[in-house]
């Protein structure tokens, strides 16, 4: 089982506070930490921690953050052979505020914005050797759409986690194997007036909508709406929970699980990830998820 992730590699500057500040408000923070992140890198690390063979594709700058992020990926068991290191371009950074069991995030793309169509064309031959390719929206959408079309033509399964929120063309929705938006992202893609059940029934066992503390929903090919509730967790930090879910879901689909089994596993992994601080540092190992599932 080999999975490729084409996406963002960021350094997360995370500040904790008693709550998220209101517009125009200044609050005193508790501390600041620099933590490896980026939706793409997070999902790759989640997969590696769950036992998959994973390679990360993307761009970093030739700065201290870039070097630290490459080292972190390697230490996490993620291959980095085709990550481009760009001279004179800063590595992407995310500014995260954590408070009241929630977070706000502002992303500055930096080198992630240079993962363009030229870069996409340069990695196509490498992607042919993978069982699945996973994408997000923190690199140029032109790159994401180009590679999804390319994978579709080659018969390579794909997962698109359309975050941050952006429109997804209908042809891309049709070509991708799995689409995993949250509720806000789903409304942007399918229309504010479209009911969740209507969206799901149009794309059975393709569209998976995450609902935060409510869990995740999809539609089975039988037409039945499947709701997998969230695991009850002692929440410390929700940063990276969605990335853990996407990574775990991709791994289990690749291993041959049906969509219900994969979502149960993914939801359990995501719940466990919220009980520790930091996106990647909170991600569970395969044995932790399996133990949790055995105890249910």
What do you see in this structure?
The chain has 296 residues and is α/β, with parallel strands linked by helices. It has a single domain, classed as 3-Layer(aba) Sandwich (UDP-N-acetylmuramoyl-L-alanine:D-glutamate ligase). It contains 10 helices and 15 strands. The strands form 4 sheets. It has a 6-stranded parallel beta sheet with strand order 6-4-1-10-11-12, sandwiched between helices. A 4-stranded mixed beta sheet has the order 3-2-8-9. It has a 3-stranded antiparallel beta sheet with strand order 13-14-15. A hairpin with a 5-residue loop joins strand 13 (208-210) and strand 14 (216-219). The longest helix has 15 residues, at 259-273. It starts with a strand and ends with a helix. The relative contact order is 0.15. The mean pLDDT is 94.
């Amino acid at each position: 089982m080999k999975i490729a992730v084409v996406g963002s590699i960021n350094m997360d500057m995370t500040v904790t506070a008693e709550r998220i500040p209101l517009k125009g408000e200044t609050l005193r923070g508790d501390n600041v930490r620099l933590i490896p992140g980026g939706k793409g890198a997070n999902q790759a690390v989640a997969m590696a921690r769950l036992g998959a063979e994973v390679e990360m594709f993307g761009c970093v700058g030739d700065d201290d953050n870039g070097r630290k992020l490459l080292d972190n990926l390697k230490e996490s068991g993620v291959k980095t052979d085709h990550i481009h290191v760009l001279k004179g371009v800063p590595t992407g950074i995310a500014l995260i505020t954590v408070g009241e069991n929630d977070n706000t995030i502002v992303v500055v793309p930096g080198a992630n914005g240079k993962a363009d169509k030229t870069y996409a064309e340069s990695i196509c031959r490498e992607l042919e050797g993978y069982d699945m390719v996973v994408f997000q929206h923190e690199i140029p959408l032109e790159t994401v759409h180009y590679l999804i079309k390319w994978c579709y033509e080659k018969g390579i399964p794909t997962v698109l986690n359309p975050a941050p929120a952006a429109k997804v063309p209908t042809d891309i929705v049709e070509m991708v194997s799995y689409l995993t938006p949250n509720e806000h992202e789903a409304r942007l893609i399918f229309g504010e007036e479209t009911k969740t059940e209507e969206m799901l029934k149009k794309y059975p066992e393709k569209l998976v909508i995450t609902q935060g503390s409510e869990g995740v929903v999809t539609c089975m090919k039988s037409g039945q709406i499947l709701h997998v509730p969230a695991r009850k967790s002692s929440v410390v930090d929700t940063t990276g929970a969605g990335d853990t879910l996407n990574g775990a879901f991709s791994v289990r689909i690749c291993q041959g699980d049906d969509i219900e089994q994969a979502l149960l596993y993914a939801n359990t992994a995501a719940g466990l990830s919220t009980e520790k601080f930091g996106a990647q540092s909170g991600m569970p190992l395969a044995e932790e998820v399996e133990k949790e599932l055995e105890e249910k």
